[in-house]
Amino acid sequence: MTSHKEFKAAAEKALEHALAWREDRAKLPAFPSATTAELRARFDRDLPAQGLNGEVVIENLVRAAEHGLVNNTHPNFYAWVQGASHPIGVAADILTSAWGQNAAIYQTAPAAAIAEEVCAKWILELLDLPAECSFAFATGATTASFICLSVARSEVLHRQGYDLELEGLTGAPNIQVFLGEEAHATIISNLRYLGFGRKNLVYIAVDKQGRMLPEDLADKLGRADGPKIVILQAGHINSGAFDPFGDIIPLCQTHNAWVHVDGAFGLWARTAPSLTHLCEGVENADSWTVDGHKWLQVPYDSGYAIVKHPKAHRRAMDISASYLVSDPDDGRNPTQFGMELSRRARGFTLWAVLQAFGREGVVEMLSRHHDCAKLLQQRLTGTPGIRILNQVVLNQLAIAFGDENEELEKRNQMTAAVIRKMRQENTNFVLGAKWKNQTILRISIISQLTDKSDIELLAASLLSAWNAVRFV
Ligand SMILES: Cc1ncc(COP(=O)(O)O)c(C=O)c1O
Fold it and tell me: How high is the pLDDT of residue 26?
């Protein structure tokens, strides 16, 4: 049995290391340097027959993970759309673990249930979405979209007089799902988990930025019968672009289609006055996904499913059993809207992060990141052989290297060479991707700490890497 004394020593040791990691982060190299073999050798020790002392376990953990941690709390981390785990959120997360609450139902965690209720209200205010929406806490955007699409599936069948909860999917009317050709990978897998095969999916053509073309959707909706779900995107993973909600959602409504919006990071644009125009009309959708652990900097894991139809939400997701008791005066049971019966009390951390930022803090960060993206665009524009493929509307840049009149293969090699060079230099964490057949260097400006001085360094590094590649 672990004594309180041993717990205290281990917790103090863990805290010491946690603070050192956060304090030293600017000095650490951007990329982890431990090899797979090294990490395996360090972690893969014999399972001890007798338990070890807690403080020793924590020291062993720190040593095993050393140089195998990705420095995504670093201001110069641009490789993926990942937040930087807000320090006050981390502090609240330590408490959350110590309190050990299971946030499934009100009676197992009353304070957590109320924190979630209040956070839901704040998020709806920040996103300027209808206050009557229902809300579920999820592990991230993947599971939040799974929840929203489960509700959509149930409700579009319900509107046809079909009771999915009673009859099940076998024999149900065929649902057609419409999505952009560049919908996020997790949307496609969610649809697979929900029983939609490729034949049920209708792909809609997109423009150069990855935005759905309303004419193509209108044409394809016009030719479809039966229940329909349309999936839109707020924040394309490469370009940061938004589907034209103002044109598309009214069209979907004339076809009685459920509209879901994957706004994993982009939906936060609703909060900053300089960016809200990107999301005009999105409030008319039926459900939305947004992440806390991306642009809002909430420590992992924290995603939110928001649904405009609480009755349908509860019908599709409810977990109830006689032992999951509630009294009339209780707050809501999160399991009536989410997927898990045992889970972390995610609301405490979110509550703390929102308090630490305040509305103005969130707006300042979003606007700063957008300004940083524009600054990087400015610094790179005009250099021969550097092409920014997207319109920089948000925080994302998709950069390709090499002259346009060179062969695609050669350009792709040059972009890959710049990425390798950046990796060798090891001061900025950047990576590549493929977009519309081109290799791109993808920049996501999303760490809470990143400011214009970091972008000046990034621009200088990129220009020097490009010069090294093109003048070899
Ligand atoms: C647009 C979009 N949707 C969904 C996801 C998946 O989010 P999560 O990793 O929180 O499940 C991402 C992740 O980057 C994303 O950018």
Answer: 65
Rounded CA separation 135/151 (Å)? 12
CA of 346 to the centre of ligand 1 (A): 18
Answer whether 235 contacts ligand 1 (Cβ < 6 A): yes
**Ligand 1 pocket test: which of 72, 212, 231, 237 has the largest number of ligand atoms within 8 Å of its C-beta?**
237
Task: Say yes or no: CB of residue 141 within 6 Å of ligand 1.
Answer: yes
Q: Which whole-number Å values give the CA distances from 150 to 143, 160, 193, 310, 444, in the listed order?
A: 10, 16, 10, 13, 30
**Considering the domain 93-353 in this protein, what is its CATH number?**
3.40.640.10
On the question of a common fold for 93-353 and 360-470, the answer reads: no
Which of 31-35, 370-374, 438-442, 458-462 is predicted least confidently?
Answer: 31-35
Per residue in 88-124, pLDDT (tens digit) is 999 999 999 999 999 999 999 999 999 999 999 999 9
Among 186, 211, 282, residue to substitute to test ligand 1 (most atoms within 8 Å of Cβ): 186
CATH architecture designation of domain 360-470 = Alpha-Beta Complex (3.90)
Task: Give the number of the atom of ligand 1 that is nearest the alpha carbon of residue 303.
Answer: 10
Distance of CA 452 to the CA centre of its chain: 24
d(CA 350, CA 83): 13
**Poorest-pLDDT segment among 16-30, 49-63, 162-176, 184-198:** 16-30
Domain ranges of the chain: 4-66, 93-353, 360-470
